[in-house]
Design a protein that fits this description.
The protein is mainly α. The chain has 18 helices and no strands.
């Protein structure tokens, strides 16, 4: 298939598969509720998509305003220069020292801290800057795809929201999945970098990349060791405090940099905030499209049939099926973050927060990010319709995260 309109075919597939399954359930099983459920899902998903976009407006305005201060204050340029040795290897098509490298770094840092509300506007800003460098405005460039995969692989150091959900669901030690998530998401990100580099013929066997990846592995090991010395209560406090302190330091640093450069900080913020409003409005149609397709697919029962098929296949091969109950979270995560979150909560409710399935669902939730959501929002915001190998690389990184999560869950909790 021509690399054009991958999301188009996926979106059509949601509706066709859902419709066929619904007809089968109606004709052969007399299920008269399936079509009303599907139609209800279209309305509820549309409403949810608009509410998400509306909720993003304030956050987008805030962070794009802060980023504008950083740009005019020179912070982004400083970050670009510091990261230039690494980013010139991962993003060889980006001019050395270009401001977009600073935006990419800020987005990745926000994702690592589990600050989704901050990461999205920063990512949209980076994508706009990458589009300025793109010679084919309707086609994803290599740097866009690498950036997207770094997002979808979901490297997370502090999975705050998952820890909160586990505490609410009555887990004895809500933080017992912290280290497994850290390991799984690290393997997912590493796989994403390697796979995308193979597609784009990027050489990772050089001194800079080997030192960077080796240093990252050392940092991950140090964090694991440090948090391993804490009890669950202290770990929760340190994780939450560290994330929020670092976020506030970023805001203060940007403002002070603006003052140092003697720019009008308030006017710069307003200028960036205006971009946030227009961006939020621009992504509404893309969100509605993807969330409605996913909602119909779920309401038809297609997801349940897929899970049952996997369980039957694993049993036929003599494999352990303990992990199958958590698969809905893994399969939903590339499609919808809120859907996967619902699956995770449902798994903890059904099986117990401290059950193998409950814990594995949490690891799935934290090991990767919402590939199709990110693809739809990020590419949609700049008008990209030809995604090239972005979907393939993103899904392979997701698969690596899922496989790592299963192996690590068996290692820690079986």
């Amino acid at each position: 298939m021509h690399a054009v309109m991958v999301l188009n075919w996926i979106w059509i597939g949601f509706f066709i598969i859902a419709f066929v399954i619904a007809v089968i359930k109606l004709v052969f099983w007399g299920d008269f509720d399936v079509f009303p459920a599907m139609m209800d899902s279209t309305f509820s998903s549309s409403k949810t998509a608009f509410e998400i976009s509306l909720g993003l407006t304030g956050v987008l305005s805030l962070w794009l305003g802060i980023m504008k201060i950083g740009e005019k204050g020179g912070v982004v340029n400083v970050l670009a220069k510091l990261l230039s040795p690494v980013f010139t290897k991962l993003f060889p098509d980006i001019p050395k020292g270009h401001p977009v490298t600073g935006s990419i770094f800020m987005n990745i840092a926000a994702n690592m801290l589990g600050l989704d509300n901050a990461a999205t506007p920063l990512g949209l800003k980076a994508m706009e800057q990458l589009q300025e460098l793109n010679t084919k405005k309707d086609t994803a460039s290599n740097p866009m795809i690498m950036f997207l995969v770094l997002n979808t692989s979901g490297l997370t150091l502090i999975p705050i929201s998952i820890l909160v959900y586990r505490a609410q669901m009555g887990a004895a030690q809500p933080t017992d999945i912290f280290i497994p998530i850290l390991l799984a998401t690290f393997f997912s990100t590493l796989a994403g970098i390697i796979i995308t580099s193979l597609y784009q013929k990027i050489n990772l066997f050089n001194r800079t990349m080997l030192l960077t990846l080796g240093g990252a592995a050392l940092v991950v090991a140090t964090i694991i060791w440090g948090f391993g010395q804490m009890d669950s209560i202290l770990m929760n406090k340190v994780s939450t405090s560290a994330a929020n302190i670092m976020l506030m330091l970023i805001i203060i640093a940007f403002i002070l940099a603006g003052v140092r450069k003697k720019i009008n900080v308030y006017d710069a913020f307003i200028e960036g905030a205006k971009e946030g409003f227009t961006t939020a409005v621009r992504i509404i149609p893309y969100l509605i499209a993807i969330l409605v397709g996913i909602g119909v697919f779920r309401a038809s029962g297609a997801m349940d049939m897929l899970i049952d098929g996997v369980k039957y296949g694993v049993e036929a091969c003599g494999g352990n099926t303990d992990f199958v109950g958590a698969l809905p979270t893994a399969l939903m995560k590339p499609l919808s973050g809120s859907g996967a979150r619902g699956m995770m909560v449902d798994a903890m409710t059904t099986y117990g927060a401290d059950s193998f399935v409950g814990r594995l669902s949490c690891i799935f939730q934290g090991s990767t990010d919402t590939t199709f959501y990110i693809l739809a929002v990020y590419f949609g915001s700049v008008g990209i319709v030809k995604t090239r190998h972005a979907v393939t690389c993103g899904l392979l990184a997701d698969l690596a995260g899922i496989m790592a999560a299963i192996a690590i869950a068996y290692l820690f909790f079986a």
